[in-house]
Amino acid sequence: MTGTSQQTRTQRGALIVVEGLDRAGKSSQCEMLQTYLKEQGHSVKYIRFPDRTTPIGKLIDSYLRGSANQEDHAIHLLFSANRWEIAKSIEEDINSGITVIVDRYSYSGAVYSAAKANPTLSLEWAWQPELGLPRPDICLFLSISAEEAAKRGGYGAERYENETMQTRVRELFRTLFERQKDVYVVDAGKTLTEVSKDIQNAVLNCLACLDTIGSLRKLGPLAK
Ligand code: NYM
Ligand code: MG
Asked: What are the residue boundaries of the structural domains of the chain, listed by start?
C-alpha cells in the first residue's frame, strides 16, 4: 500500500465549536461531549477561547478582569490574534485525526465586540479578521432565554457580564447566525442530560458527513 492511499484511509478529525451566552452551560457540555466521544473511540482535544495562557491571552485576561483597559478595536484584534496563534495547531490536530472541541470561537469574537455599540465597530468590521481561520464543521449554539439566564444566578465579575451587554449579545448572535452556515441551535433550557443528548446526535450527524465535506474549510465572509 502506498503512503497516499494510506492517508486517504485516515479520517480527519472534526472541528466542533460550542457557542452561547455566559451561563448557557458551554463548559459542562464541552466536558460531557469530550467524554462521550472518547467512549466512542475518538481522539479528542478540548480547547477554549480566549486561551489565557499565551502572552496575548494574558493581555486579554487582564482586560476581562478589569485590571487593564484597551481600546475597543485593539482588544478585538487581540481576541482574533489569540485564535490565529492557535489556528495552525488546530489544523494539524484535525489532519492527524483528532476531533477538536472549541469552547467559544469567532462568533463570540464578533458579537461581543459589536455589542459595545462603538460606531466604527460593526458586526461586519468585527468579522473581517476571522476570514481564513479554520471553519467549524458544526457550530452548536446553546440557546437560553433571558429569563432562564436570570434563573441561573448572578453575573460574574468579568467585563461584559451585565444585562445590557448580554441582551445585545443575544440579538447579535441571532443576526450573525442568519449570515453564517453550519449553526445548529440547541435548546439549552432543558436538563444537562437532555441537552447533551441533543448535542451528541447533532455531532454524530456531523461526523457522518465528514467524508462529504472533505478537507477542513476556512471561514468565509458573512452572507448579505
Ligand atoms: N469573548 C470571548 C470576547 O469578547 N471575544 C472573543 O473572541 C472571545 C473568544 O470573553 N464574556 C468574551 C466572552 C466572555 C469572555 O469567555 C470570556 P469565557 O468563556 O466566559 O471565559
Ligand atoms: Mg464567562
From this structure: 14-213
Q: Which of 51, 84, 90, 104 to mutate to test the pocket of ligand 1 (most atoms within 8 A of CB)?
A: 104
pTM above 0.85, yes or no: yes
- The residue whose CA has the least distance to atom 11 of ligand 1 is 160
Query: Could you tell me if the CB of 64 is within 6 A of ligand 1?
Result: yes
Distance CA 68, CA 88 (A): 29
Q: What does pLDDT average to over the chain?
A: 94
Amino acid letter, residue 202: A
Q: Residue 162 CA: which ligand is closest?
A: 1
Pairing mode of beta strands 99-103, 44-48: parallel
Query: pLDDT per residue over 110-119, tens digit each?
Result: 999 999 999 9
Alpha helices (H) along 128-209? 146-151, 163-178, 192-208
Question: Which are the contacts of 14, defined by CB distance < 8 A and separation ≥ 6?
Answer: 94, 99, 100, 137, 138, 203, 206, 207, 210
For residue 64, the ligand closest to its alpha carbon is: 1
In ligand 1, the atom with minimum distance to the C-alpha of 80 is: 7
- Does the pLDDT value for residue 153 go beyond 90? no
- Overall CATH class of domain 14-213: alpha beta
